[in-house]
Amino acid sequence: MKSRKRNGNHTGYLADSMFYGISLLVSVDAFLSLLLHTLGVVLSPWMAIFGLAICAAVSWTVYVLHKLYVMPGTNSLHISAFLGTCLLLFFCLYNPHQFTGVWMIFLLFPIFLSFFHDRALLLIWGSAAYLIYVLTLGLEQNMSVTIDALFDLSLAGISAACAWIGYVTIKKVLGDSRKAAEEHNREYAMTLLNTLVPIVERKTQSSSKEIEQMGRLIKRILREFPLEKVNDWEINMLSLLHYVSRIKWPDYVFESDERLTTYEYQIIQEHCHIGSEMFHDKPAFARVVKALYSHHERYDGSGYPQQLKGEEIPLLAQILGIVECFLAMTTPRAYREAVTLAEAYEEICSMAGNAYDEKVVQAFASAVQIHSPTKVSHVPRWLDHSQPRG
């Protein structure tokens, strides 16, 4: 078996803490029993003290094995819950103190499980704990036992209510905390990128108005894909990140009108990686980073950096690629003149099915609504974007 590595997963630490806490409590109980017996304060049977020592040894063994070999993750939580249930069952059956209420520990177990904020874990192993507890009640047909049983069942109901309330509360708190952290990360990322905009403007001799133009056009095209849910902040960040990515290009690239060398072309391609370089550890930005990384892929597989083909290219990346091409052609640069909107429109439409997906080009045509004498007959109309083309 391979020992696991810590990866910051809080559920793994929580599971370890469960076994550590049980081991510590049993060890303290064994030590105090031995100490009080030695001092003559409480004359506990030696078999009970020996039994507690065995329980402590078993619990520490389970703790060490769990800490070393149970890998953190969703599936491992069920393994941890199973081991915890077996360990508690062992204590209750062995029961060195012969304590009659020892089975009530199964009423506390589901409450602890609620801290993992995993519904399946709570329902499965919480139900198992309550089932074990109910089976130990040993109901008899007399009034006093029935009243005691009702009291015990009431405790089980209270425990279940507390466990569910704990689950809902922790889920809400964690959800709010996660949203606040994501919002903070977004604000920090946007602030960081905005600080680079003036540098890119001077470096590239271009206007930052392109950021707003790109974001607005991407939103228009996305309206043609109602099933593609993209947040406004993702579009804004993508437009800003795309503009800032030019900071990686050498200064002379923006002034020279000569053909790029192979080495210079490789440097130009590096701007696709700036998103992953800056935000590789931010899962919330994954779609933005992926769109920037893949926006130079081509529908026929001739693009870069991964030579993706067809539907392998994310929709947002395809849209960004078309918008980038359109704005690049219609925006004047120091080294070339801009083409007309109609000419850029015709050029992009001519690449449908080769460089760009036909349905994305059709969405672009609907979004820009440029009146052009050129008819793009090979770009089909469709009624439902969610259905594949026939």
Automatic annotation (TrEMBL):
Protein name, per record: HD-GYP domain-containing protein
Keyword Transmembrane helix: yes
Residue ranges of domain HD-GYP in the record: 182-380
Cross-referenced InterPro entries: HD/PDEase_dom (IPR003607), HD_GYP_dom (IPR037522)
Keyword hit for Transmembrane: yes
Family annotation (Gene3D superfamilies): Hypothetical protein af1432 (1.10.3210.10)
Transmembrane domains' residue ranges: 20-40, 46-65, 77-94, 100-116, 121-139, 151-170
Pfam families: HD_5
Organism encoding this protein: Brevibacillus invocatus
Keyword annotations: Membrane, Transmembrane, Transmembrane helix
